[in-house]
User: Fold these one by one.
Assistant:
Number 1:
Amino acid sequence: MGRRDTYFYKVFKVYTQLWKFQQENRQKLVEAGLRRWEIGEIASRIGQLYFGQYMQTSDANYLSESYIFYEAILTREYFKEGMFQDVNIANKQLRFLARFIMVCLVLNRREMVQQLVNQLKVLVDECKRAFQVCPC
């Protein structure tokens, strides 16, 4: 096992434990202030890990797992709340969409690519309006 594989498995193990912990303790964590976008951030990191491992190994199982996490983020709209009040959350949503588009392109899921590209265009336009910079 190479150094990168060792790193992947260690990081993946930590994120898997974190994901399981937040699932088992969601109500308590939400009551303590955990936000939906933070849950989405964890899921997005796991999707990134899977995609990165796919890029290293060409093992399509990693790509499929990445798709599963990204699709869950999309359908559960983890980044929707507060997106136009906080540029950092909007940035996370934009980056997530770009990554998900890459995964869908590699998987040749054309309909999903088109849906995501349309969503990305709309989101970029909405972000331009919401976060206009003063030309002072």
Note: The mean pLDDT is 90.
Number 2:
Amino acid sequence: MRKWVLGFTVMVVVLALLPTMWLAQPSAPVAIAQAPTFRMRIQTSMPSAATQFEGMQKFAERLQKMSAGRVKVDVLPIGAVVGLSEILEAVDKGVVEAGFAWTHVWSGKHPAAGLFGSPPAGAGTGMDQTTHLSWLISGEGANLLRELYRDGLKTSVVPFPIMAVGPEALGWFKRPIQSLDDFRKLRFRTPPGLPGEIYLEAGITAVSLPGPEILPAAQRGVIDAAEWGFPSDDLAFGFHRVWKNYYLQGLHQVTVVADLIVNGDFWKRLPPDVQAMIDTAAMAANLEHYALLIHRNGIALKELVEKHGVVLQETPREYFTQFPKATKKVLDKYAARDAFFKKVLESQRQFAQLAMPYRINAHKVDLFLAESALKDR
């Protein structure tokens, strides 16, 4: 009898609690729905048609899903709120919550920015894009990047490396070059900052022109050669309509990285889990875009060669000895002038001494693998 009474009592208690348990089940989604939401406007440095803009849209979609809608992200094309040169200040002052730009854009504010975003010839260390990312993520690069924005650029923004696009092509040429002397006879459009200085040091007539002026200058004969990006971007740009000689192997931007920068006060208002989501989504964007470009560039290069008659040329071997020499000379000059520049450069050189012996020897297999596959065609 006691057992029956006890069992009956337990059953009554359970039945009484069922409505409460049922009502309690959706509490987690309700809590998320009631959590504060954050609007994050990202002022980018690109037009909406750019591949990198597409990459930032994917970042936004991923972050919104990860946060269950708690972060509403608007990716803005260049000029929507401010222009390229104003992005850093706009983010720092809270005009927008975040921005996207290549780190080397800020080289005019501090020369060390070029070592993070686009170190020529891998900062003279031999580091390629993958090894540079390793330094940025696994080495001292992440802490030094924060130091650059905090102390070097005098801002409170929080930076995240978000998009690697290197290596970029040497460029497009009016006529083939067989030697560095041939190169020196041409007027070559280069990026501003360190790459331009290094080309001048190497005896190349370097001309700095903004993007919209490059093709008109080429058509008028003001310049004889120019660099811009990589096959997918260069195809869209239209270089093949002016010149047909295309050189992929260049050292001036063998590594190129862009940052997501977040306003410091906005960052502090975010809960720790949302901060972690931004960090994770940025890391994912890096990998996703890096993989995407291999595919897109393969498609573009095939079209350039087969449809538009572009001739893929080999860069003269002399270039690969002379450009690094000029790079070292220019970088050492800046290191002698600025303590932070020296600190970053020494960090990269030390990392390269550790990583490059492995990288070079292990990845010889990539070349052997490709050569074997081509021979078997």
Note: The mean pLDDT is 91.
Number 3:
Amino acid sequence: MILASSNLSKSFITDVIFQQINFQINEKEKVAVVGINGAGKSTLFKIITGELSADSGEIIKSSQTTLGYLSQNSTLETDLTIYDEILSAKSEIIDMENNLTNLEHEIALHAKSEEIFAQLSDKYTLLRHEFEMQEGYSYKSRVKGVLKGLGFTEEEFDKKAAVLSGGQKTRLALAKILISSPDILLLDEPTNHLDIHATEWLENYLSSYRGTLLIISHDRYFLDKIVNKVIELESGKC
């Protein structure tokens, strides 16, 4: 189990959104959250992420579990270029890459000192192994692949993200979340600003995603291609 709710309830003034709902999601499950407009789908996502608080009950997950959340109106406010903004999601990998480069220089400087050379070499070997485990040698190609898949051309990579339209910023926010590879992806209507080619690309990407996925979408065909479990919110129940 990677995520669960226990007797979760939420109301807004006199409007009951849902009452004492319970569900359990296992690692790597791909889950559609469905229900009519106003059933509480987006509210549930916001409670899972901590953006909203439940009136009672609780969300159960490990504090170590990472979340990536795309709301319906997600945008990015940044002074970076399209490419650099997405690259910032891989800051840990970039830090490791820089540390490896620095270690290479240190190893070269201490080549004649057997003890220091051995210590640095051991440190380098361990760090390189971690870098490989984190797919460090392919992160730049992954960034480019995700951007292209979501409809950005290479000619646009150096464009400032601040000048993008609202729909383009939402696509950029989606790209950054995908590149961050969280344990749990929560996507609220991710196809809203995608053309058919980008939608097909996203469908394939999510189908092979290694983590857990919760997704809200009005596109039932899109959901049918991806999910293996459905949580339905109806009349305040789950």
Note: The radius of gyration is 21 Å.
